[in-house]
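Inverse folding, one chain.
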């Protein structure tokens, strides 16, 4: 116990006054004549003892009354445990985690609602003496200001869940910057109210804080709960055909503490359910499932995988976009049109083949092509070479069938390869082609079985090259026949022989069609991404007929926004929007004409779905070396105000001493009034 006005204790010297009064009896003696001396002595002795006891009790009561009253005026207090009392008049910065993991429940109440109640109790603790800053994961403009408690409560009522997760270092940096620029006090109060989800708040052992401000950590550890969610999806074949069965793969995760048994997952295309699958997953594990589906119409389709799960519902749906049979533009430049390419690509309406001879090349068409085929060209001129360079920068694929009379110096200069001519010395001698390796992804699902004795085409090479990529097919002499070389953002496919009966029968072999199909389909699907996450940075969308100065917008129901964007050729790159946006399928539209160019899917970050939290004991161990950090444990929601005050506010005791002084005064009056003496 200590005193706010210790000088008042000097008044305790006044306790000597009742003692002096007691020691000196100032009442005058009165003579009484009595003949029975023996009886008088007995009565005198009894009376004397009773009077002495009464006066002692009165003295003690009077002294206790005076002592308690004097101590009450000295303002006694009971100091806090750590000796650092909170200053109620300084600035209070409160961070309330409003990420989706706060949907979880604690004692049948949403964790975020409990957090809101703690914020209100904090305003009651500091009353009107403090100014408040409320920070949530959105880092909105309001978080740059301190306001009164009434305004803080208004903000609290408007606060909703956010799809943004923040590391605690980000939160502290934000609070620290605002406090330095706004607050004059050297020491302030910083509160962190969160479930302290490990995947969100980061490595707290590396958290850097100051030693001036006081930190109060209020962990809200939710009750164990089930949570099943779709982590990611991908297609068995990235090229979807209409009215054919397609296979979708989905990684499903059970981040809860209970096993999931026979839970149904539904696949929707648009609003129509097209497939479903039941899963059983142990707690803390994942499983990859396959779902077969068919789509009747071409074009883009909004899809979603849906799970019924409670109490965490934000990740029950996973949205993605599939494009059925997209148009693949193929431009071939050849010395003479021999019809082989039209025979391959003319059977499917999603292939759009245009063939130009070297005399009538439309170079503008090359910039619109997904796949460029150079066949039987004697040389590559400078104009075509520039278009090839642009195509690689845009991520296009180029296929080269050389001419037997090719100028390989122009080939080398234009394609960035070191070509060497093969001298046939008369009639071309064709060599057998080796069966491909089963491990090469390019030939996946092309062969049912690869055998050394299988029938393969033959070829007489007219050139070879220094290999920088992958040999997809090799001749029996181990020289390359068909190679895949990454160049820039695109790929270069090289063949060692021209499409000529004198040099190869490859174009007449059954292998020719799947090879040409895979090169074409790969040119369209290599950059296709089914969905994006809000915690990503950039999203790429294919668009057509856009000019560099055109502006696009994203719309989803009533939500509409114009993101930061960059247009290059037929590709649109946008900054993935942040903030309180719903997950779902967004339309990419012209800001002027409202014309829809494409669809793009955005999902909430899956890190919020991982139910792994810092325990109170872990937090205490992490911050045990920091005396200005206080971690609350075993909190009871209804008694937080009292618990905080006991730990951080000195307890005033003057009321108790004032009450005690009144009680002793009452005791003195009662003794004088009812203690009868003779």
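Residues assigned per position:
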């Amino acid at each position: 116990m200590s005193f706010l006005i210790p000088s008042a204790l000097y008044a305790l010297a006044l306790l000597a006054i009742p003692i002096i009064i007691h020691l000196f009896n100032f009442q005058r003696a009165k003579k009484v004549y009595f003949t029975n001396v023996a009886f008088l002595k007995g009565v005198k002795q009894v009376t004397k003892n009773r009077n002495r006891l009464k006066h002692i009790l009165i003295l003690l009561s009077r002294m206790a009354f005076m002592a308690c009253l004097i101590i009450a005026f000295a303002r006694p207090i009971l100091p806090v445990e750590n000796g650092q009392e909170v200053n109620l008049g300084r600035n209070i910065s409160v961070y309330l985690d409003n990420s989706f993991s706060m949907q979880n429940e604690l004692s049948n109440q949403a964790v975020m609602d409990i957090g809101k109640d703690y914020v209100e109790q904090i305003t009651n603790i500091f009353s009107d003496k403090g100014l408040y800053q409320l920070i949530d994961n959105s880092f909105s403009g309001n978080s740059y200001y301190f306001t009164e408690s009434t305004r803080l409560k208004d903000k609290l009522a408007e606060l909703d869940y956010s799809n943004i997760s923040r590391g605690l270092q980000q939160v502290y940096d934000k609070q620290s910057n605002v406090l330095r620029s706004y607050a004059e006090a050297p020491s302030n109060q910083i509160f962190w109210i969160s479930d302290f989800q490990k995947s969100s708040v980061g490595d707290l052992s590396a958290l850097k804080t100051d030693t001036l401000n006081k930190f109060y950590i209020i962990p809200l550890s939710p009750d164990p709960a089930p949570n099943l969610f779709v982590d990611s999806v991908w297609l068995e074949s990235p090229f979807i055909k209409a009215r054919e069965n397609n296979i979708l793969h989905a990684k499903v995760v059970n981040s809860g503490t209970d096993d999931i048994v026979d839970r149904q997952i539904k696949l929707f295309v648009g609003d129509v359910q097209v497939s479903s699958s039941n899963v059983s997953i142990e707690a803390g594990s994942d499983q990859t499932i396959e779902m077969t589906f068919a789509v009747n119409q071409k074009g883009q389709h909004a899809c979603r995988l849906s799970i019924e799960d409670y109490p965490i519902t934000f990740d029950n749906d996973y949205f993605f976009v599939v494009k059925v049979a997209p148009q693949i533009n193929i431009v071939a430049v050849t010395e003479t049109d021999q019809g082989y390419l039209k025979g391959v690509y003319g059977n499917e309406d999603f292939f759009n083949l245009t063939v130009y001879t070297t005399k009538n090349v439309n170079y503008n068409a090359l910039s619109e092509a997904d796949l460029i085929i150079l066949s039987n060209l004697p040389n590559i001129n400078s104009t075509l070479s520039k278009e090839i360079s642009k195509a690689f920068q845009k991520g296009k694929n180029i296929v080269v069938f050389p001419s037997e009379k090719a100028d390989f110096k122009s080939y080398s200069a234009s394609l960035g390869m070191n070509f060497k001519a093969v001298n046939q010395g008369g009639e071309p001698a064709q060599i057998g082609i080796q069966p491909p390796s089963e491990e090469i992804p390019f030939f996946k699902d092309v062969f049912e079985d690869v055998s050394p004795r299988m029938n393969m085409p033959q070829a007489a090479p007219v050139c070879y090259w220094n290999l920088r990529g992958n040999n997809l097919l090799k001749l029996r002499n181990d020289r390359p026949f068909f190679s895949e070389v990454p160049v820039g953002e695109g790929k270069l496919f090289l063949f060692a022989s021209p499409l000529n009966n004198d040099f190869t029968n490859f174009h007449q072999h059954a292998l020719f069609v799947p090879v040409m199909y895979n090169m074409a389909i790969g040119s369209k699907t290599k950059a296709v991404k089914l969905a994006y996450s809000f915690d990503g940075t950039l999203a790429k969308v294919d668009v057509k007929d856009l000019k560099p100065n055109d502006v696009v917008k994203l719309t989803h129901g009533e939500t509409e926004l114009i993101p930061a964007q960059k247009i290059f050729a037929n590709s649109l790159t946008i900054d993935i929007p942040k903030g309180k946006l719903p997950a779902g399928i967004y339309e990419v539209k012209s800001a002027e004409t409202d014309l829809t160019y494409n669809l793009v899917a955005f999902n909430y970050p899956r890190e919020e779905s991982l139910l792994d939290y810092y325990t109170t004991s872990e937090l205490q161990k992490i911050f045990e070396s920091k005396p200005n950090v206080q971690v609350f444990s075993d909190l009871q929601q209804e008694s937080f105000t009292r618990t905080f005050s006991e730990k951080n506010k000195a307890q005033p005791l003057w009321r108790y001493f004032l009450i005690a002084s009144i009680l002793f005064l009452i005791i003195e009056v009662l003794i004088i009034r009812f203690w009868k003496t003779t």
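Residues 218 and 632 are 6 Å apart (CA to CA). The two ends are 45 Å apart (CA to CA).
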